[in-house]
## 1
Amino acid sequence: MADLGYRTFDADNHYYEAPDCFSRHIESRYREQAISARRSADGEWQVTVGDRPYNFMHVKFDKTNAPGSLYEMLKAKRDNPELGWGDSYTAENMLAAYQQPDARLELLDRQGVDWAILLPTFGVSVEEYMVDDVDQTYANLRAFNRWLEDDWGFAHRDRLFAPPLLSLLHREQAIAELDRVLAAGARIVHLRPCPWGGEGRSIADPYYDPFWARLNEARIPVAFHISDLRYGDLAVRMGDDPVANVREMSAFQWAFHHGDRPIMETFGALLYGNMHARFPNLNFLSIENGSDWVHYLLTLLDKKKGMARYGPWPAGRPAGRISEIFKQCCFVSPYPEDDVEALVERIGATGVLFGSDHPHPEGLADPNSFVELIANRSEHEQQQIMRDNALALFELN
């Protein structure tokens, strides 16, 4: 375990959900539209979204693979093409710390981590299955957030900050659930990376201002964790399966559907929407979307702002360079395989958040080993990234 001389704030930690995380608290009138998990005859879990099979990822309720094991899994697949993604799952890998908050705190203590943003594993990937039914979407998100309160809490011991899942598919329902979770103690909220609401509008359209104003007043950061945004029409036109399991997507889908494009479009909408000028207390966090896109996006946004000088600016034309506005309200937690020092050079140490993705296989087995990725930065910058930036976002000492 890396010994830094101080305890850290991990901005990308995960839990594994319970099988009834969406169905336990679903309102009776939406029971048939719940996201439900049942064991099949072979003992494996089958998840449905209402009457639709869910297949975006292999859901892990009682077994998983080891933290940081992705490289070995890909190497094994190279050597044995018949090997499936789930073949590495074992019950022994599903530790109590991944499903219970106090056990998680004990694990964080051993890892030298004091605080963590704790995110779902499969819960962030279900909204795309329900976008054609607003009421089903909100019923399931409300149910999930109540389960989250039960099993984890929104701010357990002021150390585990678990964001409730929200959506802008419908303004009034979004506001109602936001008001409820803020009253229940939420300290951060989650929206999937998606630049549009459900009503033919940008998420930065002034129509949604009552939603954003509440977050601005409460000084609550907004996390955008990598999610499922299918771009289904494009997949069909490219000859790809628009509902492929994430581990079975084409390279084109990995490159353009799952990662860079959704978060770039989302931040582009927020920045061109003049959100920082209108809501100066809002901070936007990109979590587990990588960071290779940042340099390109900031160059692009600066250039196209000038090109669109005569275009529409419904919320007012932002003053100054978009790349500088980004540094004032946007934070990025990069992948461990990214050039993190190049990211620091582009946006400054104050805009970078340490995130381990623990306990996922694509993450770090030892969270604090992230510091090795910024070994050439000053100790002050390292501490900003590993702890202080996140502490400031949550207004913690």
## 2
Amino acid sequence: MLSEIDTRPFLAAPKAFNLAGHVLARAASLDKPALTILHPDRDETLSYAELLRLTQGCATALLTLGLRPGDRILLRLGNTLAFPILYLGAIWAGLVPVPTSAALTRAEITKLAALVTPSLIAAEPSILLPDHPARRLTPDLAAWAKLPPAPLHLGDPDREGYVVFTSGTSGTPMAVSHAHRAILARQTMHRHWEGLTETDRLLHAGALNWTYTLGTGLLDPWTCGATALIPAAGTPPTALPSLLHRAEATILAAAPGVYRQILRAEVPPLPTLRHGLSAGESLPQALRNQWRNRTGTDLHEALGMSECSTYLSGSPSRPAPVGAAGYVQPGRHIAILGDDGHPVPRGTAGELAVSTADPGLMRGYLGHPPPQGAWFRTGDAATMAPDGAITHLGRKDDLLNAGGFRVSPVEIEAAFHDLPGITACAATQVEPVPGTTILALFYEAPCAIDETLLHQCAEKALARWKQPRHYQRLDALPRTGTGKLIRKALAARYRRPE
């Protein structure tokens, strides 16, 4: 049996469509909170009626500036109410929002602005701006609430709806253009990953500019009529347990690194929490087990990327088997390809690929042609079990060479996740002398761990040729602003044993 699953079709998008109109289709009929920003001592809340009114008023304000459909707006905003209002308001008006991280330096954001050529930069005063001639706009929610509603801009569902940037872990970030239709690909995720219903209160621990937060933390709850909960900027992960308890969250969404930090804190009883969602990087089985033991709830992983919404996952109705990421979501056409571009037999490692007909797939990278051929190759290595469960092996270019064999760093790291003292670890190759490479494990821990224990741990779980030859403690593994491991940066941290 080959590693290919085709569960299409998705429902076709209407000929005249708007992403923001789809997300807020139920807003006028819902008398409840849409969004709450959680502060340590107070909360900011928007009702669905206020969210709709502000979105429409914001669209009016943008159009009065003379902007035309298709113009791009660079967002330089933090975790504030202005962020979702400008994001949806722009799309409502047929404009194209471009979210960016508030942590970027002036030089970094200048490079990104040059890629997207914005017609307007919407910015809060405390956030650095690019060296770019586009006009500036300061958010004014009070003024927007008084403006008449702009009409919903309807058009081709394949037209550009928004632009996001890749994380840049492999080099310069790429500008990813997504169509309005991308929101339709998320419908299957509501049931087959998130288990999301109208009665839920979903707390997402990420920054609003991150695609994971935008989709799972805001757009999905609003499409379903649920309530989105977002911690205020600067909230440490160790404060999340008390926020979960106080906000009566029913679902938590975060990256694995955040779950690790939560488990280091005091976790009060969370009687309303039903389960957690994990994305952004691979979820170690040991971390999933620790979360279950501490909270009595499960974690469900999903795999996606900036270029495509999540396409495989575990879910409350179909949890992923031990060690696997999950199953292909209904409506998707997925394969694991060999170097020849054809699906490999199940049980054989290959590269995950998504059909270029998938509605959640990007229109393309700005400045580059759209994806060609039948498959978009994701760069993720994986295997598919006979029952269709997929195990993620890491990035294809991250696979390590040990004695002529290809080894997944994820497999090596999993051997150490239960070792007391280690809070995170990452495997890679290092070059102790020119021309010689060895496997190395870098780990986070309060203090260095006896190498005898590390070697014993490796010997119990790994074949000899998979065992690291070098162990090194770091105060923190190199990560992006969204918490993704930058594996390529590890080799530069290597220190030869004295």
## 3
Amino acid sequence: MTDLRNDRHLSMQHLLDRIGQGSIDTVVVAFTDMQGRLQGKRLHGQYFAKVAVPHGTEGCNYLLAVDVDMNTVDGYSISSWDRGYGDMEFVLDERTIRVLSHLPATAMVQCDLVWPDHTPVVQSPRSILQAQLDKVAAAGWQALAGTELEFIAFDTTYEAAHEQRYHDLTPVNQYNVDYSILGTTRVEPLLRAIRNTMYDAGLDVEGAKGECNFGQHEVGFLYADALTTADNHAVYKTVAKEIAAQQGKAITFMAKYDQREGSSCHIHLSLRGTDGELVFWKDGARTPLYDHFIAGVLATMADFTLFFAPNVNSYKRFADGSFAPTTIAWGLDNRTCAVRLVGKGAGARMENRLPGADTNPYLALAAMIAGGLYGIEHELPLEDELVGNAYTSDHPKVPTTLAAAREAFATSAIARETLGDDVVDHYTNMADVELAAFNAAVTDWELFRGFERL
């Protein structure tokens, strides 16, 4: 029997029993795609029990070779017209079985992806993270992580927002509600439903708080091992949108929706021994291993920015004085730096402030771990702490466009050494597809600037 992540998850036998009793009639079988979205299918409970569990299920391999609009695009070696768009097999991870209490009689199980010969699909985000976690485990450690994910909520349906071309939407709050109890009370039916549903689904919920932008909020969750955190993150994003839709609202996880503050995904990360032993902290201070890890994350941050900021819109968030970083530096409890060190003892951890809410958590965590392990392996020295305002410092800057991040990633010897050519080439092509789509678009800015006056 597979060990459960906690007592709110279901074992496979418990799920099958509930299907037999009729309390579960639908099972969502899902994996996370390149864009960080859950993709898959809804299986009738009896089919899941009698066919999918003993014999497996599959989906088209184009699901890891499309743009955000699900268009088939060129440039991917694993999937194309020439290759016939064959199948990938979905491997059920029994540790992830959870009840989705916002939907009637529904459970979910997340999957790994393998080819028909049962070799891993190495370009799958979950496989990419697992490859780095295998390296961590081989060294006798485990990676613990937590993600802080912000969103903006609107008093409109997704359908109405689409008809309005996502302009002039009414946010659920009309002023800055950062830490405001009144501001969150006004949205409590939505926030409470998200918190309680996610708890039912096996996530350890901390709480909810308001943020700076109008209608912006954050629901926080307790840290866990890195794979569990990434799995939970992906489920949370989908479920939060579903609950908002049920309440006639819409939420967005865009990194930068408007001219005000963007939505971040700060990622906290630390290493422990497999027995829980502290490896980042000893005798009241950071260990050399911790310093090497931080140095590696900093040394590879520009190369891996594509995994932290994967979309054209991601780079609109990087603005001086915005609480989003523009400088590659570290500081002690300094929110102007890309890397902020917080906590002591068992709570000692690094916070990567670069990712936005649109990041793929598997890829972002994989990049941080790959960079940190590179720093440990090469015993990279940690530069001096940045004290003061990082925005006005002379430290190296974060890439400011997707094109710049794409070039840094594609040409990075470290990325190819730590992630492999197959992964680098695959996600370089993803950036190329995004850039080509953006460069072909005529934006509102261009219309307003040039329709009459040029």
## 4
Amino acid sequence: MTTTDQLYQLYLQHPSINTDTRKIAPGSLFFALKGEKFDANTFAAQALEAGAAYVIIDNAEYRVNEQCLLVDDVLTALQDLARHHRCQLKIPVIGLTGTNGKTTTKELINAVLSQHFKTLATQGNLNNHIGVPLTILSIDASHQMAVIEMGANHQKEIEFLCSISQPTHGLITNVGKAHLEGFGGVEGVKIAKGELYDWLAPQSPPNGGGAFDSRAGVAFINNNSADLMAMQARRKFAIPPVFYGDAIDDLVSGEITTNDPLLTLRWTNNSSGESYTVKTQLTGAYNLNNILAAICIGVYFKLPAAEINKGIETYQPKNNRSQIVHTATNTLICDYYNANPSSMAVAIENIGKLQANRKVLILGDMFELGDEAAAEHTAIIEKALQTEVDERIFIGKEFSIQNSKFKIQNASFYSSADKAIAALKANPIKNSTILVKGSRGMALERLVELF
């Protein structure tokens, strides 16, 4: 069997990692991962033909030559290799998790730090047990900082991802109602996300060697979040946390001065007492804390205010997260990458506050809510009805069930996106500001071309 040390020596010679034969880079290491519907061991020969230097497999049947390296389990080998590589790195690694805003906050932090440091950040949302190791293995000697996003839908996942990424600094954006089925309710979410704080404030040193055994790290904490403040108060941080929010005692404080729909902020470095204005390309008052988190980290690492502002100003949201799209007749707030009760509620609140001639809500079902699905969809319907907008459209089976149960008025309900599309084609929306939000599985991007 090939050991982690042996794999690492090969990785140093071939630092490009692949897990998809369609994207093989010549001279790379191909890890033959298994999925529910595939076994990449079967592609070992194909990976070598495509130019892979070595293929890591866990089924000896597919060992076609000495370039096929056998391990007990390919996924574990990948994770162990990443953990070993992380132990060789001496750079700050910022670990990031939370219910909402992880990817936007990660991108903002990266945009700020990249003004001053060569920074590597998680690509897209590769934030799971495969994505985090791949991100760690993409850090090379030229990088001065890393920002690692970590996602989870069960207990102990953040703890495990921390054991690989070994963050020296950390941030929980917030805790809310998401993946309730897997976490077992909101209290379960707090426990799971709090595993990042546990890593930064360990009760006792972890087993084994390595440069980061003490694990004492810096937590950046939103002082405006009662949940996060309570969570950090239950832990003993060897290094005092760094706070951001709206108080003068925070390292950074700030407020929105314009939301029309793009945000302008005024923020203050409370160490120097100096204040600054920054215009963003983000919409949504809920992004204030995400922006302040990035500013706070920039101030902590002593970036000049001009560099911090440039990072914030030049960041353009994408992937349908708080993204503004102007069409011939409408302004769209595209926020349909994902949805849960917490993010849905603040998005509805935000459009209610916007100045616009005509406002429309288009909301799709929220997934992975388990036994709470009916109650949470009902609560969102009620919130939408209480918000001053001109039209409300609900799409999906869960929303439609609530309509038939309560016979809700002043709103349109469609059991599927296809039915909504047919209705919108017959009665197009024009001259409106439209929030489009729902879980990724609803595929609400199909509606955008109608506007």
